[in-house]
Amino acid sequence: MKFTSTRGGQPVGIEDALMKGIASDGGLFVPDSLPRRAVGDFDRADTLRDTAALLLEPFFAGSSIEEDLPAIVAETLHFPIPAVPLSGDGKDFWLLELHHGPTAAFKDVGAGFLAACMSRLRGHEDRPLVILVATSGDTGGAVAAAFDQRPGIRVVVLFPKGRVSARQARQLTCWSDNVLSLEVEGSFDDCQAMVKSAFVDDDLSAVHDFSSANSINIGRLLPQSTYYAHSALEHYRATGNRPGYIIPTGNLGNALACVLARDMGLPIGDIILATNANRLIPDFLAGDNWLPRASLQTLATAMDVGNPSNMERLRSLHGEQDQLSGLIRAVSVDDEQIAAQIKKQHAELGIAICPHTATAFQVFEDLPEGDLRKDWILVSTAHAAKFESIVEPLIGEAVAVPEALQSILDKPSRSHSIAPTLEALGDALASGFGNKDDA
Ligand SMILES: *Cc1c(COP(=O)(O)O)cnc(C)c1O
Q1: Contact 232, 259 (CB under 8 A)
Q2: pLDDT digits (tens, 9 = 90+) for 86-138
Q3: How wide is the angle at C-alpha 109 spanned by C-alphas 107 and 110, nearest 5°?
Q4: Nearest by Cα to 54 from 67, 70, 68
Q5: CB of 302 sitting under 6 A from ligand 1
Q6: 154 Cα distance to chain centroid
Q7: d(Cα 409, Cα 171) in Å, to the nearest integer?
Q8: Among the listed residues 250, 272, 275, the one whose alpha carbon sits nearest the alpha carbon of residue 259
Q9: Residue 252 in contact with ligand 1 by CB distance below 6 A
Q10: What digits encode the pLDDT tens for the residues 367-393?
């Protein structure tokens, strides 16, 4: 299987697509063709891991890590991803819990898979690979967790000082000597600008082998289609129905993985994207032009995206507005509704949901009459305990912290504070690893 940039150019193998992350023309890698699968192809796949290995096989065929795929899958999917049956307002539905990984959000799947691939592709180079990540919270933690203690790979996490929650900060700063956590005296945009300038800086690139692990890497996208495939197959086998999915959406990576699974022939019905007040996708599907907007701050911070990058992939695979509006739907949910859903689901179902997951509940509640005969799987993208400062005041009680997350929160935390400049980043890179003393 080859992968080509959304902007054209020469196809590359999966190795290059994974290691480069973004194509040299600035485009995103997409598979040259999607394998078509039948439900029967998965008859002997009983577990998520079996399904994942079968589903991803064609993408790795002929690559140097083809044989490693089952091990990569096992290393990544080491936690459960259940579709839990629930019932509220007299309606049955399912909640696909993507939040049982090390940092309690779905990004653990993509980051874990990418780390497992990269560490195998990285051979025995003398210089370590240096992964630079700018994060406003969730991504950095998942990437750091995934690459923690991987030989030959270092991770540099840049986050804005004072602008991530206390629990998020701990998830960014509790790792081993191969992870350097930099608290930048600036904004998230400063962090991102520093990473971008480092990539194109000749002096820094002469001494460091940089790479990225951001959410547009195809190695984070592909594994996300596995939990849609597996939950849809289980549902279809049990009921004969193709479930629809309602997916909290920001940069469109998680929802695009569901579209890919359906494209490949998995038994998936409707796909509805739930966005927060950042409503470019719903407006675009309703006919507006695709004009990137400044992102609005909402309670569902990990979805505060004004210019969802994966739309470029979706358009290159599926065409323009009119085609897309028949393929997916999108609904925007505001902060008031998010808060109301967190309260309501706690009162009625006795569960604590995170602000991102709350958008899916709102969309489910507002489904038109005609959709209620269908089966729906709502997607839980993170555990409520990650967003306790929002959730706990709303539900009036503490959210129990999952064991995996607690073990991270219990670790000692270390970071360096740096100025928002490329020079400061260069200095930190030169001196930082294994030398963290300003705890
Ligand atoms: C990243 C994230 C999202 C948005 O996912 P995209 O792939 O960017 O659409 C939703 N919820 C949580 C908790 C996240 O961390």
Answers
A1: no
A2: 998 889 999 999 999 999 999 999 999 999 999 999 876 778 999 999 887 77
A3: 70
A4: 70
A5: yes
A6: 20
A7: 7
A8: 272
A9: yes
A10: 999 999 999 999 999 999 999 999 999
Whether residue 419 is predicted with pLDDT greater than 70 in this model: the reply is yes
SS3 category, 274: strand
Beta strands at 179-184 and 29-31: parallel, antiparallel or unpaired: unpaired
With H, G, I as helix, E, B as strand and everything else as coil, classify residue 140. Answer: helix
Please tell me the predicted confidence (pLDDT) of residue 60.
Answer: 97
**Cα 231 from Cα 259, distance rounded (Å):** 14
Q: Is the pTM of this model over 0.90?
A: yes
Amino acid at 94: W
What is the C-alpha separation between 249 and 300, in angstroms, rounded?
A: 10
For the stretch 324-352, pLDDT in tens is 988 999 999 999 999 999 999 999 999 99
* CA 79 vs CA 96, 101, 227, 228, 327: distances in Å: 13, 6, 12, 15, 31
| Top mutation candidate among 98, 135, 254 for ligand 1, by most atoms within 8 Å of CB | 254
Distance CA 138, CA 354 (A): 13
Percentages (nearest 5) of helix, strand, coil residues in the chain: 45, 15, 40
